[in-house]
Give the backbone structure.
Amino acid sequence: MTMTSRERVLTSFAVPSEPGNERLALTRVAEAVAAADLTADQLERLKTAVAEATMNAIEHGNHNRPELDVDVTVVDTGAAIAVSIVDNGGAHEPENDGHIALPDLDLKLAGLQSPRGWGLFLIRNMVDAMDVSTDGDKHTVRLLMVTGDPATQTPDGQTPDGQAPTPEGGPDDQQV
Amino acid sequence: MTTPALELDVRPVGGATAVIDIRGDVTATSEQPLSAAYDEATNTHGAQSLILNFTGLDYMNSSGIGMLVTLLVRANRQRQKLAAFGLTDHYRQIFELTRLDEAITIYDDESSALSSASATS
């Protein structure tokens, strides 16, 4: 990951791939960003996104193998908080058994969709941007939450000096 | 002593209505206790209106939302009404995103939920 002079690593840690450890990750991330310029609502949304992405990494990336870690890094880019969540599953769809179907409550209530499958939908709706990349076995989900007064930023998340908070782009970028 | 991740109490409140008090985490491990609470409210207390009290909710993830959908499916089959109160602004937002708020009526507090349940029973 390329760092600019404005970027600062707030924390970097690993959690074993055991169900429930997403709570450990969200607690550590919340502690790391406590001094960041996020509103209470942004913090709650970031915590939910981190928990869901970590759950996906544990379950779908590392297949609940506790000897494999999920690595979490939190960076303050100066314009956003960026949280990278890395598993060892290589290219994989995070859920829905490889099929990214938009969850639909009506279909679920009619028995036409599994009651589950809300994770990726939640992540996409909780953060300002999300991108997914794969390098060999390493599968990375990067979450971005724009910091500072939203009134001073353009709808695409740019600050007045034109600094975009998003990381280097890639073919897997999924802006929300 | 470890604290259970989820504690549920079922309170019959009259008028074929039961409140399910939720304390702790609603996650994938909540399926059995939620199902047991639903069965108690329905089979033991004959509830036609179920009110979920989220005041003590610490954490709910996507699997927990799936558990609520399952509960909703069961309630719909039995033509029961499902309502909720005590949600934080964050979880209200999640209910709106998932459209659960269209199927589970959300109230600010217990008295409002009970008033509505008694008016429609």
